[in-house]
Design goal:
Two copies of one chain form a homodimer. Chain A is mainly beta. Chain A is about 10% helix and about 30% strand. In chain A, the strands form three sheets. The first copy, chain A, has a four-stranded mixed sheet with strand order 2-1-6-5, covered by helices on one side. A two-stranded antiparallel sheet of chain A has the order 3-4. A two-stranded antiparallel sheet of chain A has the order 7-8.
Chain lengths: ~150, ~150
């Protein structure tokens, strides 16, 4: 793919039941992206892509997002080494969401900056609580030593 | 939960590594929600929730979203019967995304209005194509007979 232009959106029938990839980028130029472990199915993270991210992800087969906080292209693992090798790219019925199936690689095999394999490392402990508490479901794979680290 | 008010957001450390559910609803009052089959791990759909949706999902254990197109609360399966029984509710590191693990029930066991079990029924056929085409990965479980139906 030499440019970052995807086909224009056509009709609902073609978008929903056709075979042309015509992703819907929002008014901010972004499309939500769910990233899942290709083998286990574990949801690893959720992020956004712009057209360039998606084009580069397809070209390089390395997950490349758009960082909203840093306002720049974000090649996952570029700094940490925890790259994601893309095995499959899916889209949903109305093509306004992407789903990547990846092999999470790198020194820690962690998708989350807090050191966990998946960003979804906490669940609501009991669905019957009136004041729901979170419960950890995993241990970190490395000590992130970030500003978020609790004393 | 008698009201739809969740705890106010506190510090990054508490949000990321604490046990208080303090979800971030955007300026539009919505939080993205990924819904996954509790058994197979298949990602079924992606939608949004507002505070009332989340509170009702926790209360009733039936997935309840916010329909942006209809601008109303959307109890999944209320009309089709294809309800989602919620087994687990997760959130991500910065608590701005939700992940539901559900048992998809109902007459068709389909999460997608187009008749598919999952909305993600198409993948990019080849990651090496300069003009990527989509390829179907599943057959519909029912004939949706919607306006999107292809002739």
């Amino acid at each position: 793919m030499s440019s970052f232009v995807f086909p224009a959106r056509t009709t609902p029938a073609e978008i929903e039941l056709g075979t042309t990839l015509q992703p819907k980028f929002g008014t901010d130029g972004l499309i939500p992206c769910i990233t899942q472990d290709a083998t286990s199915g574990e949801v690893l993270m959720f992020a956004f892509m712009n057209a360039e991210s998606l084009a580069r992800t397809l070209q390089t087969k390395k997950a490349t997002y758009w960082s909203r906080s840093r306002n720049k292209l974000w090649i996952k693992g570029e700094e940490s080494g925890n790259v994601q090798h893309v095995r499959e790219v899916r889209t949903d019925c109305d093509q306004d969401v992407l789903l990547l199936k990846v092999e999470q690689a790198g020194p820690a095999n962690a998708a989350c900056h807090n050191g966990y394999k998946s960003c979804f490392y906490r669940k609501v402990a009991s669905l019957d609580d009136s004041a729901p508490k979170l419960q950890f479901t995993a241990r970190p794979l490395f000590d992130p030593a970030t500003v978020y680290k609790k004393k």
